[in-house]
Structure formats: C-alpha cells, structure tokens
Amino acid sequence: MTDSQLIREIKDGNVQYYEELMRRYERKILSFIFHLLKSAKMEAIAEDLCSETFYKAYRSLHSFREVEASFKTWLYTIARNTVLSEMRKNKGISVSLEGNSAMTFTSTEHTPEQTVLRNEKVSMVREAINNLPEKQRSALILREYDQMDYQEIANILGQTVSSVKSLLFRARASVKIQLEPYMEPIFKEYEGMNQR
C-alpha cells in the first residue's frame, strides 16, 4: 500500500495501519532527530522525540492534506519542529550533525591507520557542518543524508526552492572553506607523489 492508501485507511478508522507508516519512516526520522541533537549532547532523548513526532503526526493526521505536501515531508517538518522546540527549552544549545560511534566508517579491508584517518576526516566534516547556521545545517542534512529533493526540503523548512538552493550553496561553500586547511597538505603530498 502507498502512504496515501494507508492514510485513507487510518482516517477511516483502521488505526492498525499507522504501525506500517511508523515502520516505513521510524529509522530515518530517528536518525534525523539524532543528528540534530548530537552537539547539544541531547542524543539520549532522540527516541523520545521520535515517539513524540509520531504521536503528534497521529494526533494531527485528520488535518493532513496530501495536496499541500507528501506525508514524508509533513512528518520531517513535525520532527524538525519538535527538535527545535526542545532546543528552545534548552537555550544556548546548537543543533548538530555529529555522528555516534555506530555511524563511523570502519572496514576490515583497511589498515588501522587508514581507518583512523578516515574517521578523522568524517569527524572534521561533521564538525564543519556543526558550525553552520541552523537552516543551512538542516538543509544539508535533509539533502545529503536523507536524499530529499529541493521541493521537499523547501516544504520542511518553509522556504522557496531557490532559497533552499541558496542555503545549500552557502552551506557547502562554508564546509569547504572550513576543511581547506586540513585538505591542502593532503593535496600537496598527492601532487608530490605524481611528480616522482
């Protein structure tokens, strides 16, 4: 069944179908919330906010209008607003993209040194993203991590598509500028190897 069919069933009183909607989106919504909470050291409440997101969505499902947005976009908007509301309660805390240890990149095919270097690079990228303003950071998470298109991101952030493109351009440029001092020695070493 499509999301639309499930929603129609739920609105008709077949609430057991809401479990299927939750199953489809729970991991992605939890990951999105976790990323937003990490730098605030609030990741421990990610599951609670995920549950709250699905509860709010269920409570408001009667008012959901598919012509205005897809269920996925609507759900991400609720998740983002839930996180931002929690962050406002804890003023001075910024939203983050920092990952947990389970999300670090490791492979048995790499030497320990390569694994450490790769994890350091991932950490530097996350730190650079953490330094972005909230809207740029959210747009970048939705685009790069959740693979959403510009229109979906615009709907979630309450922006126009051109504003989202501008946010993403500025976010990527800022991340690149922040990472250049770290990447320059690598490029010089690579160029030196090619000249031998």
Short recap of the structure:
The protein has about 200 residues and is mainly α. Helix content is about 70%, strand content about 0%. Helix 3 crosses helix 4, helix 6 (about 135-145) packs antiparallel against helix 7 (about 150-155) and helix 6 crosses helix 8 (about 160-195).
Topology record:
Elements: H1 3-11, H2 18-37, H3 46-60, H4 71-89, H5 112-130, H6 134-145, H7 150-157, H8 161-195
Question: How large is the count of helical segments?
Answer: 8
Kindly name the structural category: mainly alpha
Report the major sheet. Answer: none
CATH H-tier superfamily of the largest domain: RNA polymerase sigma factor, region 2, helix turn helix motif
Per CATH, the class of the largest domain reads: Mainly Alpha
What is the share of helical residues?
55-70%
Number of strands: 0
Mean pLDDT rating: 79
Assembly type of the shown chains? single chain
The proportion of residues in beta strands is under 5%
Along the chain, the helix and strand elements come as HHHHHHHH
Principal-axes shape call: globular
Number of domains: 2
Stretches where pLDDT is under 50 for at least 5 consecutive residues are 93-108
Instruction: Compute the separation of the termini in Å.
Output: 60 Å
Radius of gyration (Å): 20 Å
In CATH terms, what is the fold-level topology of the largest domain?
Rna Polymerase Sigma Factor, Chain: A
CATH architecture of the largest domain: Orthogonal Bundle
InterPro entries: RNA_pol_sigma-70-like (IPR039425), RNA_pol_sigma-70_dom (IPR014284), RNA_pol_sigma70_r2 (IPR007627), RNA_pol_sigma70_r4_t2 (IPR013249), RNA_pol_sigma_r2 (IPR013325), RNA_pol_sigma_r3/r4-like (IPR013324), WH-like_DNA-bd_sf (IPR036388)
Keywords: DNA-binding, Sigma factor, Transcription, Transcription regulation
Domain RNA polymerase sigma-70 region: 21-91
Domain RNA polymerase sigma factor 70 region 4 type: 125-173
